[in-house]
Give the backbone structure.
Amino acid sequence: MPFVIGSMSHCAPVWDSMIAGLTAARLGCSSVEFPDEDRTMSSGETISHLEDISRSVDVLLTAYVDRSSFGAGHLLTERLLSSTDLPLICVRDEMFAPQPGLAELLGFSLALHSLERRKIVISWGFGSQFVLPSTAHSLLLFALTIGSNVRVVCPSKFPLLKRVSKQARDIAKASGAEFEESQEFEGSFKDADAVFALNWCRLDDLNHPERFPTYAAEFKDWYLASDILPEGCFFSSEYPVETESLVAPAIARGNKSVAPSWLTRRTSVLAASIDWVLQTHGPRTK
């Protein structure tokens, strides 16, 4: 019997809902996007609302991003996961982006065949988008979990969350992988097997995004030119890739770039996640 995918999002990229629809089409099922409700609801009311919606679908996708109260969307998602047996997939919140992170890992895995003990560099890069570092956070933790060695490269004014770095060190210790952090752009890519670059925002100024360009102006040279990456190194970034400021077009669209396959990979990862949660939870009783 065909199943139904439901999705609810708040302040998430429009591509998330489009990927849900594309994945449903590939799986031969239906996708329903529920409208975002009044955000004045308490977290308890929001969870009750989601649980009500869940009774009419087989899998629920959530993407709650709260920039005004950083971490609120993440806490809401965690509460929902712990309070319901609904087959639920968290696409992203403001702290983590499990689906995009897995899609980036898939791209490097397909290119390199094995990621164990491979060096993955996650780097801040100059640009104008200033997105949340949620994908970088998830890619970091996932890569270390499977045994990749990871180096995070970012200016002191654009760090990742300290709690994520601490979690990364704990995972690296458990998996036997190497995790290091650097504030030096030059020389940080010479031993890289794969590089993920992203112009993420300054978390200390989330409520003042107008300040981002001022801080970033000091790091205009954080640009991946064609002679930066070693031979055989693969590249990726989130769509759309800024080829005027973040990375050279020859890298972004070259034969060592997995970035162009981002939509195919996002769809494949979501389809696999849906299959897993359905098999794990078993058929729903309506």
Q: What stands out?
A: The mean pLDDT is 92. The chain has nine helices and nine strands. Residues 123 and 197 are 5 Å apart (CA to CA). The beta strands are 4-10, 30-33, 59-64, 88-93, 119-124, 149-153, 179-182, 194-198, 234-236.
